[in-house]
Structure formats: structure tokens, C-alpha cells
Design goal:
With 410 residues, this protein is mainly alpha-helical. The chain has one domain. The protein contains 18 helices and no strands.
Length: 410
């Protein structure tokens, strides 16, 4: 018979157990740094794709609506109708810069007076924010992210609407914006009929905008080789732009959430929370560099959606973008032959500065657009029909209704 000792299995050699399948090695500092660098490169590539997508959406709408938007400006005497025209024209071309440039040309040629053009400039400020709202729709599948994104997109709308609600009646009653801009033009260029020593305006070409246009032109040229022209080309570019926007937004949000989480996120919000002036300055500088307030404010939407920036800290950057969008036009108009160009640029600058000075310094007033945007975002996250109702009502139906009503009265 075998003894108990004989039946006992042989001892297992004492060796280190193999790591479990779910366990992974802890990355070294060098590996973490390399991973962060790669993620930054991916984010930069996605940001470039996002800017190209915005250009594609705006460019496609310009292809379809540029002539119609220019035709809107003719024969508008009522200031409320002019406001509606500014909104509609900017929604059509998705660029306040294009609308403002058209208005400047019409003022310079004598087709519009400065008083007629001032409400249009205000309307362009409202119309340009539709881009942010379209960008926020890219987060619709995730309720919390969409709520933050939609609030970040619409807080700019509410601020501009409040500014117009306060400043347009004052402008109608006193003409303080157009008169002060005309006075400043006289101080800069001299009295009408005198020659300006500068002999021409300053120009600035944004390298970022140029790089984006290269890609946009490449896409349109490639589609043109497939026989697409006119409306078919515009619709194809628009669809591709929307698809690229959604793709870039999803991956920008995921990568930025990893890159800026933890101490860096808290430090960013703490720095902007200490001083709203810092956020305003950032908005001015970035917008002057890229020559588009839509780009600046649209870039903030995914940052807010990911929870990296709070709405309170993103808000002053948007206000700075409002001011920064006037810088390029003002520099370009200095010393130009058409005095109306500088005057309208100064009206635009004065309107945005007055809006910031009116609402931002007082906390209770500053919180009005923030709370309104959050309330609308909660409803939109529960029922997406609020998005369609808001965009269609604020940017299309109300301006059309106002334009029609005052056209009947005039």
C-alpha cells in the first residue's frame, strides 16, 4: 500500500506568479510624457479639422446665399427691420465679418447711411452666434455634455440679445453710437475733404485662417473634379462639413478631458476665475489672430462640454471675442479713402465695448445671460425639439416676422 507521503504531490517550485491578464505595467514618466505629446498632436490635428469643418459650413452657405444676403440690405429705413436684416444676412453666410464688410462697402458707396447701418451691425452680432449652436449639437448623444455645450453656445446669444435690447432703443433715441463714431473718425482722419497722412489702411493676414482656406479650397477643387458645381457642390460641402464637425468634436472632447484633467483643469479655472479681464484679453487676442469670433467661441463649446472650462470662466472669453472681431476691420479701415468704413468699424467696437461695460462689471447683471443659457440648456437636454425651436425662432422666424411687419408699416 502506498503511504500518505507517497500519495502527496511533489512540491511546487517557489517562483513569482505570472501577472494576471487584467494587470498592466505602470508607465514610466518618459512613457507618460510621450503619450501626452502624441495626444496633444492628435488634438491639434483635430482642431485643424474642426476649423476646416467650420469653414466648410460657412463657405457652403455663402455659395447658396451670398447674393440673397446682399440683396437684403437695399432700401431698409426702419431700424428694427435693419436689425432683422443684419441677423438674416449673417445667418445666411455664417460670418459676421462678411456681413460687416458688405455693410462697410454699402456705407462707403453712399447706399446706406451710418444711422441705417448701425442696427445691421447689431444684428450681425446676433446672427454670428448661430454657428456655436450648430456646433453644440455634436454633443447631443450625451445628455450632460450636451447640456454644458448648449449652455456655452447660447450664453453668447443671450448676451448679444440683451445688449441690443438695451442699446438699440438708446441709439434710436440719441444716435450716441453713430455720432460718437463719426466724431472719432473726424479726429483720426481729419475733417471731410482733407487728406489723411497715413495713405492707406493696415492689413493683417491670419496664418491660421490662410491654412484653413488652403484645405477648404482643396476640398472644393477635389469635389469639382467629380462634376459638382453650384448648389450640388454647396450642399455636398455642407454635409461633409457637418459630418467632420461632429467627428472632430467627439474626439477633441475625449482627448481634452484626459489632457486637462486634475490639477491643470483646476489651475485653468482658478486663473480665469480670479480675473475676468484675463479671459476678455484672451478672447480679444485669439479672435484678432484667427480673424473670426465664431472660431473662438466655437472652440470653447467642446471645452465646456468636457467640463474643462466652467460657463462662468468661458463667458468673459466670449465677450473678448466680441471685441476682438472688430480689430481687423478697424485696422484695415484706418487711412482708407472711404470714411464710412472706419466709422462703421468704430460703431461695431463701441457697441461691443458698451455691452461689456454695461453687463459684466455687475455680478447680478453678468449672471442674467448665464442663468438664461443654463435654463434653456436643461430643457433642450430633456427634449431636443427645444434646439430646433430655438434656432428656427431666434435666427429665422423672428427676424423674418420683424422684417415683414415693419416693411408693411413703412
Amino acid at each position: 500500500m502506498r503511504t500518505a507521503a507517497a500519495r502527496r504531490p511533489p512540491p511546487v517550485p517557489m517562483t513569482d506568479p505570472a501577472p494576471a491578464a487584467h494587470e498592466t505595467a505602470i508607465p514610466t514618466p518618459a512613457q507618460r510624457a510621450l503619450a501626452s505629446m502624441l495626444r496633444v498632436a492628435v488634438v491639434l490635428a483635430l482642431l485643424y479639422g474642426f476649423l476646416v469643418a467650420i469653414q466648410m459650413m460657412g463657405g457652403s452657405i455663402k455659395m447658396m446665399g451670398k447674393d440673397a444676403s446682399q440683396g437684403l440690405f437695399a432700401g431698409v429705413d426702419n431700424p428694427f427691420a435693419a436689425l432683422a436684416v443684419g441677423i438674416l444676412a449673417t445667418v445666411l453666410v455664417q460670418s459676421s465679418s462678411t456681413t460687416t464688410a458688405t455693410i462697410v462697402a454699402l456705407v462707403g458707396s453712399g447706399t446706406l447711411t451710418v444711422a441705417q447701418a448701425t442696427p445691421m451691425i447689431m444684428g450681425a452680432n446676433i446672427g454670428t452666434t448661430v454657428t456655436n449652436t450648430l456646433v453644440s449639437v455634436g454633443h447631443l448623444r450625451k445628455s450632460q455634455a450636451f447640456r454644458r455645450a448648449f449652455a456655452a453656445a447660447t450664453v453668447h446669444d443671450f448676451f448679444n440679445l440683451l445688449c441690443v435690447a438695451v442699446l438699440l432703443p438708446i441709439e434710436i433715441a440719441t444716435g450716441f453710437l453713430s455720432r460718437s463714431a463719426t466724431w472719432l473718425t473726424t479726429q483720426i482722419l481729419g475733417a471731410p475733404g482733407t487728406e489723411h497722412a497715413a495713405g492707406g489702411g493696415l492689413t493683417y493676414s491670419s496664418p491660421i485662417k490662410s491654412a484653413v482656406k488652403v484645405a477648404f479650397n482643396g476640398v472644393t477643387d477635389l469635389l469639382g473634379q467629380f462634376g459638382l458645381t453650384g448648389t450640388s457642390l454647396a450642399v455636398t460641402v455642407l454635409v461633409l462639413g457637418v459630418a467632420l464637425t461632429f467627428f472632430c468634436l467627439i474626439w477633441i472632447t475625449k482627448n481634452m478631458r484626459v489632457l486637462v484633467s486634475g490639477p491643470l483643469e483646476r489651475a485653468l479655472n482658478r486663473s480665469l476665475g480670479r480675473s475676468g479681464l484675463l479671459g476678455i484679453l484672451i478672447g480679444i487676442l485669439v479672435t484678432a489672430a484667427v480673424q473670426s469670433s465664431s472660431i473662438t467661441t466655437s472652440l470653447l463649446v467642446p471645452l465646456c462640454a468636457a467640463g474643462i472650462l466652467s460657463l462662468e470662466n468661458a463667458f468673459p472669453i466670449m465677450l473678448g471675442a466680441n471685441i476682438g472681431t472688430t480689430v481687423t476691420a478697424m485696422l484695415a479701415s484706418l487711412g482708407a479713402d472711404e470714411r464710412g468704413g472706419l466709422t462703421i468699424a468704430l460703431v461695431h467696437l463701441g457697441f461691443n465695448l458698451c455691452g461689456v461695460l454695461l453687463f459684466y462689471p455687475v455680478r447680478r447683471l453678468r449672471l442674467i445671460p448665464i442663468r438664461a443659457a443654463r435654463m434653456l440648456a436643461v430643457r433642450a437636454s430633456r427634449n431636443p425639439a427645444w434646439v430646433l425651436g430655438y434656432v428656427g425662432g431666434a435666427f429665422v422666424l423672428l427676424p423674418l416676422l420683424g422684417w415683414w411687419m415693419f416693411a408693411q408699416l413703412s
